Structure formats: C-alpha cells, structure tokens
Amino acid sequence: MAAIVRISSVCHRGVKPLFYRSSLLSRTLVAQQKDQDCPYPLTARIHGSSSLYAGSVSKAASLHWTGERVVSVLLLAMGPAAYYFPGPAVDYSLAAALTLHGHWGIGQVLTDYVHGEPKIKMVNAGLFLLSTVTFAGLCYFNYNDVGICKAVALLWSK
Amino acid sequence: CFISLRTFTRQGTCLFRPQFGILCRHAVPMGTTANEEMNTFWAKNNKLNRPMSPHLTIYKWSMPMMMSITHRGTGVGLSGGISAFALLALVLPGNYPYYLDLIHSLSVGPALLSLAKFGIAFPVSYHTLNGIRHLFWDSGKGFKIPEVYRSGYVVIVLSILTSIAAIAYM
C-alpha cells in the first residue's frame, strides 16, 4: 500500500493536519501512528511498496540477513541437543551449522575491513576454500573418528 | 544499521519526527547502490593517497564498544579454532583419543588445565550469550542506552559464571 503523504502536511505541523485530510490512506497512517511502541511495522509497510522504484531491487541482501539469524538460532538450539542427545545426527548438524555460521560471520568481518573489488574477490575466494575444508574436515572427523559431541565430552572429562 | 539509514536517504525517503514513525518518499530514486558508493569512496580516497583520520585511537572507549569488538574477536577466534581442528583432523595420521592421551601425558597440572578449559569455555559462553543479546536487538528490543548497558553487564557476569560452572561441574 503506497502511503504517499504530502511533505508539507507532515513537517512541523504535527499530527493534526492529517486528521483533516479526506484521503483514507492518511487515516490508516494516523491510526497506526498512535501505536508509538512499534513504529517498525508501519515503516516496514510503507517501505514494502515499490511503486516509486525505477527498477526492482534484489532481495538477496535481506534474505542473507534473515538466513544468518535463522542459522544462529538453530546453532543455539544445538547446544542443549548436543548435551542431551549426542550422536551422529547432532554431529553432522553441528558440523553444518558451525561451518555456515562461521563462514557468514567471517564474511561480514571481511566486508567491513577489506576494500577494493579485486581484494574483496580474493579474500572471499580464500574464505570459501577455508569453509569448504572446514566442513570436509568436520564431516571426516564425524565419520572416521569419535564425532564432535564425543570429542567435547572426552576433552572435558579430564 | 548505518548502511540501512544511508539506503533510506539515498532512495529519497525522509524521516520526520521519529516519534510518529512516518516515512515519506520523494519521487526521485537514486541510481547507485550502497555497495557501489562505498567502492567509489574507497577507490577515490586510496587513489589520492589520503591518510585516514584517527578514530579508534582518539575516541573514548565505552563498554558497548568493547563488548562489540570482543564479540567479533571471540567469533573469529572460535571460527579459526574450529577450522584448525578440522584441518588437523584431515592431515594428522592418528585418531582423536590418541592425541588427547598425548596431551594428557604431558601432565600439565590442574591449574593450567583449568586455565585452558576457561580459555575455551569463556569465548564460547561470551559469544553465545552476547549472540542472544544481538538477536534481541534484531527483534527491535533493548536499544535504549540504559538497556544496552544493563544487558551488557548481564552478559559479562553470566559468561564468567557459566564458564566457571563448566569447569567446576563438568
């Protein structure tokens, strides 16, 4: 829903002018305004409208952000899972979640500190290689050795 | 957060009276992405060989700043540790119990053993608890400055306590 409000009616005159506008759109705005505790859904709703974009904007970055949080929550859940239900299922899930969380995390660090197209490409390629080897190594350990859960248990038993 | 604010302003949105939470749009969208503009900025300033202004060396350090970089530091450290472990698993000939016994045969003593355990437990504990704090922020909660400091102290205290508990009871 495109919520285009004339700038002059919003600036420096407070909320009152909006009450006297006849358009339904501004009424919806006003009603939502009262909920001052969550301006977030309001802005999200307005921002969702793409009527003023010259072209479409990729949702890749937004989806990446959501993916990062999902993996974080899953990894959080794997802590108690590993403690109460150790075994291959948790071992391989842990290998995947740890590697992905670490890959995206280091990716953010590199994005913050590395500048210039060629350098960015190089370090990201290096990171991809590292993450691949990490995942391979963890899976190898799970398959041919005691597995992640058992390894932590053994490490801590001494 | 800084980047998203820039994205808003470049698309020609404006924020009036934050307490009303209204966003209105101008009719002229911009042609470049944030990424493109950042690259242009760095390319230009590097080409002109401009020195960077002092920042970390002059700005007063605050608790949230220190916690933030510690979160990053523990994350990088833990990630490096996991990668090193995975690499060793692929490269070294023996199996895990063999190497564990090898380390134990060095008989380092209980104090150093506890220290080593703390060295592993604390980064895990801190990064996990501060990570939960981050997830709260991601849901939009706890941004008021007193809340930031309060949740920060809770994370620090709980991290130390859980690390000690992990060493003492497990």
TrEMBL record, chain A:
Position of the signal peptide: none
Residues reported to bind a ubiquinone: Y113
One family name in Pfam for this protein: CybS
Binding site for heme b: H101
Keywords (A to Z) from UniProt: Electron transport, Heme, Iron, Membrane, Metal-binding, Mitochondrion, Mitochondrion inner membrane, Transit peptide, Transmembrane, Transmembrane helix, Transport, Tricarboxylic acid cycle
Biological process terms in GO annotation: mitochondrial electron transport, succinate to ubiquinone; tricarboxylic acid cycle
InterPro entries according to UniProt: CybS (IPR007992), SQR/QFR_C/D (IPR034804)
GO CC terms in record: mitochondrial inner membrane
Pathway(s) served: Carbohydrate metabolism; tricarboxylic acid cycle
Description of how the protein assembles with itself and partners: Component of complex II composed of four subunits: the flavoprotein (FP) SDHA, iron-sulfur protein (IP) SDHB, and a cytochrome b560 composed of SDHC and SDHD.
PANTHER family (UniProt xref): SUCCINATE DEHYDROGENASE (PTHR13337), SUCCINATE DEHYDROGENASE [UBIQUINONE] CYTOCHROME B SMALL SUBUNIT, MITOCHONDRIAL (PTHR13337:SF2)
Protein name: Succinate dehydrogenase [ubiquinone] cytochrome b small subunit
Organism: Oncorhynchus tshawytscha
Gene: LOC112265408
From TrEMBL, chain B:
Molecular function via GO: electron transfer activity; metal ion binding
Xref: Pfam families: Sdh_cyt
PROSITE patterns in UniProt: SDH_CYT_1, SDH_CYT_2
Positions of transmembrane segments: 75-96, 108-129, 150-169
Cross-referenced InterPro entries: SQR/QFR_C/D, Succ_DH_cyt_bsu_CS, Succ_DH_cytb556, SuccDH_FuR_B_TM-su
GO cellular component annotations of the record: membrane; mitochondrion
The protein's name: Succinate dehydrogenase cytochrome b560 subunit, mitochondrial
CDD domains per the UniProt record, alphabetical: SQR_TypeC_SdhC (cd03499)
Signal peptide from the UniProt entry: none
Function statement: Membrane-anchoring subunit of succinate dehydrogenase (SDH) that is involved in complex II of the mitochondrial electron transport chain and is responsible for transferring electrons from succinate to ubiquinone (coenzyme Q). SDH also oxidizes malate to the non-canonical enol form of oxaloacetate, enol-oxaloacetate. Enol-oxaloacetate, which is a potent inhibitor of the succinate dehydrogenase activity, is further isomerized into keto-oxaloacetate.
Key words, A-Z: Heme, Iron, Membrane, Metal-binding, Transmembrane, Transmembrane helix
Topology in membrane: Multi-pass membrane protein
Keyword Oxidoreductase among record annotations: no
UniProt pathway: Carbohydrate metabolism; tricarboxylic acid cycle
Cellular compartments annotated: Membrane
Record-linked NCBIfam families: succ_dehyd_cytB
Gene that produces this protein: SDHC
Gene Ontology biological-process entries: mitochondrial electron transport, succinate to ubiquinone; tricarboxylic acid cycle
Subunit structure: Component of complex II composed of four subunits: the flavoprotein (FP) SDHA, iron-sulfur protein (IP) SDHB, and a cytochrome b560 composed of SDHC and SDHD.
